[in-house]
Amino acid sequence: MRICTHILILTAFAILSFPQLSFGDEQKTQKFPFTELTAEEAKILTSGKPLFIDFWASWCSPCKKSFPENNRLAKKFKAQVHFVAINEDQNEKQALAFLKEFPLEFPNIMDNQRRLAKMLQVKALPTLLIFDAEGNLVLNVRGYDPENLGKIEKTLERISKP
After folding, report:
1. 14 falls within a domain
2. What dihedral do alpha carbons 41, 159, 109, 35 form, nearest 10°?
3. N- to C-terminal Cα distance for the chain?
4. What is the CATH number of the domain that holds 91?
5. Does residue 162 lie in a domain region?
6. Is residue 73 a contact partner of residue 156, using CB atoms and an 8 Å limit?
7. Which of 5, 56, 126, 159 could form a disulfide with 135 if both were Cys (CB 3.0 to 4.6 A apart)?
8. For 98-116, how does the pLDDT look when each residue is reduced to its tens digit (9 = 90+)?
9. Structurally, how many domains does the chain consist of?
10. Residue 90 DSSP label
11. Would you say residue 3 lies in a domain?
């Protein structure tokens, strides 16, 4: 199996295993560790669904601009594509404060050790990666530029068709 398929499975496991960060009086702070998959979990996660990954951090001002558009895309394609945001902050409190101001409408996980970022060679924030259902990287967008929105949406439309 190719490395991108392993990353796809690992990320999908993290998405499905840990609830989205949310805010409210009852919220408990959670850590989001990455776990090895059992064969059964890997089989379940290779369901043939594309994956949209957004790497971000609280200190990243372009990330603030990308969140509303990413939320819009997640609403539009949620039935066909898994969406996940991966936070690179060292300080979880800063990440949570950022999410209070700029909420996400899809799962978010902490990667303060930068494990996935290193595996995927993420060198700038925000970085958007889109994988097709077979685990192939089909789009890599570094930084935020509104000019890229059409290309991102067309990529999602293309890979989400049955």
Report:
1. no
2. 20
3. 23
4. 3.40.30.10
5. yes
6. yes
7. 5
8. 988 998 888 888 888 887 8
9. 1
10. S
11. no
Structure tokens at 67: 């969140």
Per-residue pLDDT for 128 more than 70?
Answer: yes
Quickly list DSSP for 8-41: HHHHHHHHHHSPPP--STT---------PPPHHH
DSSP string, 111-139: -TT-HHHHHTT--SSSEEEEE-TTS-EEE
The residue segments making up the domain with residue 160 are: 50-119+148-162
Exposure on the CB side of residue 151, measured as CA atoms within 13 A: 12
Joined together, the tokens standing for residue 17 give 């295993």
Are 21 and 108 spatial neighbours (Cβ–Cβ below 8 Å)?
yes
- Report the C-alpha gap between 88 and 132 in whole angstroms: 24
